[in-house]
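Structure first, sequence second, as always.
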């Protein structure tokens, strides 16, 4: 794959370049700011971009805002946010742009290299990969979630990660039928369309998060 990296920390940037080259990918640009990210994507049209949240000049959410700007221009632009923080509303705004090809992982929770490379493949192919902690933080302050039971909150978080009914059942050690009942109740309580397509389910949940 052709990859753009936007990361202002030199050691992390160079480490990502080395890892990706070893895996057989082509890093077409490695930049240090949001403006440079936009220029690099427009110039190189990468298969996926890896973006940090905090970059110059203010080190707040320049990276995620640049990623969102790219997605507003091209809703199919594949982007993986790789950061140490969850950037609240900015993250929700980014994750609800476009029709797929988006991810948000926390640097200190990427379990292994293969998991990271698999996430890149998923995003480049139009899928979604979202760290469970990111999902839970975005869900935490949603007042309408008060209507959900603790188990339904768990199921909703796993749905927003893109897990199938079977994967949710395995994670929670319950039956597929129980998962289906929880999901139906969740959609009813949150007024969401009960679509069996995993991608559309994730989009529905993330759209709710943005409201």
């Amino acid at each position: 794959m052709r990859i753009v990296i936007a990361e202002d920390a030199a050691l992390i940037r160079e480490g990502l370049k080395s890892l990706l080259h070893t895996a057989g990918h082509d890093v077409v640009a490695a930049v240090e700011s949001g403006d440079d990210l936009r220029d690099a994507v427009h110039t190189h049209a990468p298969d996926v971009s890896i973006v940090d949240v905090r970059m110059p000049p203010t080190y707040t959410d320049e990276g995620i805002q640049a990623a969102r700007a790219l997605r507003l221009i091209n809703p199919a632009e594949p982007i993986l946010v790789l950061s140490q923080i969850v950037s609240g509303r900015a993250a929700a705004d980014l994750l609800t742009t476009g029709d797929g090809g988006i991810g948000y992982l926390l640097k200190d929770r990427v379990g292994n290299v293969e998991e990271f490379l698999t996430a890149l493949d998923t995003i480049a192919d139009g899928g979604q990969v979202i760290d469970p902690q990111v999902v839970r933080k975005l869900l935490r302050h949603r007042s309408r979630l008060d209507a959900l039971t603790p188990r339904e909150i768990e199921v909703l978080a796993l749905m927003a990660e893109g897990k199938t009914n079977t994967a949710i059942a395995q994670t929670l050690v319950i039956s597929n039928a129980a998962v289906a009942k929880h999901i139906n109740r969740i959609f009813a309580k949150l007024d969401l369309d009960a679509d069996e397509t995993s991608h559309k389910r994730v989009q529905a949940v993330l759209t709710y998060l943005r409201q």
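Margin note: Residues 68 and 94 are 5 Å apart (CA to CA).
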